[in-house]
Amino acid sequence: MAEQMRAIEITEAGGPEVLQLCTRPVPQPGHxxxxxxxxxxxxNRPDALQRAGSYAPPPGASDLPxxxxxxxxxxxxxxxxxxxxxxxxxxxxxxxxxxxxxxTPAAHCLPVPNGLxxxxxxxxxxxxxTVWTNVFERGGLQAGERFxxxxxxxxxxxxxxxxxxxxxARVFATAxxxxxxxxxxxxxxxxxxxxxxxxxxxxxxxxxxxxxxxDMVGGDYLPRNVRALDDDGRLVQIAFLQGPxxxxxxxxxxMRRLTITGSTLRPxxxxxxxxxxxxxxxxxxxxxxxxxxxxxxxxxxxxxDAAGAHTRMESSGHIGKIVLKIE
Length: 327
Hints:
Layout: E1 4-10, E2 19-25, E3 33-43, H1 45-52, E4 68-76, E5 88-92, E6 101-105, E7 109-111, H2 118-121, H3 125-138, E8 146-149, H4 155-166, E9 170-175, H5 178-187, E10 191-194, H6 200-206, E11 210-215, H7 221-228, E12 229-237, H8 250-255, E13 259-262, H9 270-283, H10 285-290, E14 297-302, H11 306-314, E15 321-325
Parallel strand pairs: 8-9, 8-11, 9-10, 11-12, 12-13, 14-15
Antiparallel strand pairs: 1-2, 3-4, 3-6, 3-15, 4-5, 5-7
């Protein structure tokens, strides 16, 4: 294993141009950790937030961006029984994925599903951990329920549509173009709503209201989501692309027995993330291996063009996942 590696660092808070190629020492595995030689790294909205200076890494995490990757295990620390050196894995990372090597807890690794390559596998951890914990554990989605996911053509959205459909929910999604709406329907959405042309509140109310909404928009979507919910409905908030503050009439929440909750993944404990990994291995990885669900791929960029990948993501023109090719 080399002593130095190429990586992308954030030189200062700002736009995509602050992402610059650098050389860093190769990380060493601590107790319960593995080091992965990275083949591909997923590009996600939290990476852009960190780049902009609004999402600091948790204590002890790498300052390099990158929350998911795939590759080959090249070193293991004490206390690790799986994965072993030479195993191909994908992994949820505390940070550091935009690099040739990264260290992460072994318990946050998952095998590359049969039938998928390393490129596709790099797109799985951040989105599948997020969707599973927020839609099925925190949100409690059940078969037959009406589920609305905003940003249906995003990495989170395409994952949520497929999983909710496979587990028997009636899926509705919002997206901003006819092409994106068509992609959502192809993935299993019963109805895709072009939010520039239609009011998702009216659509959902006509269906009886949503039992569960997954939202990453925030801002004025919050009171609209409340109106779109059926009585006893649940709203799970995972991001705030339009801001975290808005006026809300909580009398509706009380009278209609609504639940508003949310979470972020990165600050959760290693144990909590390990439990999510175990649930995914048991309940979702077989679906990936059988081919009934699959990551939706948008585009690939070389490591040195991480700025281009961020520009693509922030343009909101993509459908599905963006990856960096490291090797």
